[in-house]
């Protein structure tokens, strides 16, 4: 090949390589303008084990579970809070743990979620999620009765 053809091929290959790199970089670049914020739950009045105990204090019917499901469920608190309609909540999940043993003898676990519940950070509202909708549960309060 003569030098002009070699130079033209080198320029074309160089341009192709640069375009490919720019396209790859543009496609693989994540959107840095959108910030995903984590909702920390430190300021919530009811959290951790207290949140689990509070949700477990509801009846099976109130939670939308059968008695058998409620007995079989493990209640777990999500590590991050959630925001629903501008209000912050602690998320509690009721799930049944299923153990499966593979052909290789390896045991794996899956969780079948039976219910999702949300306690507002200030403790004044409890929601139950059904599909994409949320319904309020009546708050459970305890009061000491005086002997008269």
TrEMBL record:
Q: Is this entry keyworded Signal?
A: yes
Ordered alphabetically, the record's keywords are: Signal
Which residues belong to the signal peptide in this entry? 1-25
Protein's name in the database? Lipoprotein
Provenance organism: Eubacterium coprostanoligenes
Its lineage opens with: Bacteria, Bacillati, Bacillota, Clostridia, Eubacteriales
């Amino acid at each position: 090949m003569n030098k002009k053809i070699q130079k033209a091929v080198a320029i074309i290959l160089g341009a192709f390589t640069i375009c490919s790199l720019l396209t790859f970089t543009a496609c693989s670049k994540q959107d840095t303008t959108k910030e995903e914020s984590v909702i920390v739950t430190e300021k919530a009045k009811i959290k951790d084990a207290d949140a689990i105990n509070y949700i477990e204090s509801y009846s099976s019917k109130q939670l939308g579970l059968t008695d058998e499901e409620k007995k079989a469920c493990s209640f777990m608190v999500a590590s991050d809070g959630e925001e629903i309609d501008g209000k912050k909540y602690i998320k509690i999940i009721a799930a049944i743990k299923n153990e499966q043993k593979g052909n290789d003898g390896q045991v794996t676990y899956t969780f079948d979620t039976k219910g999702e519940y949300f306690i507002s950070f200030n403790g004044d509202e409890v929601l139950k999620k059904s599909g994409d909708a949320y319904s309020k549960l009546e708050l459970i309060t305890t009061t000491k009765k005086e002997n008269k």
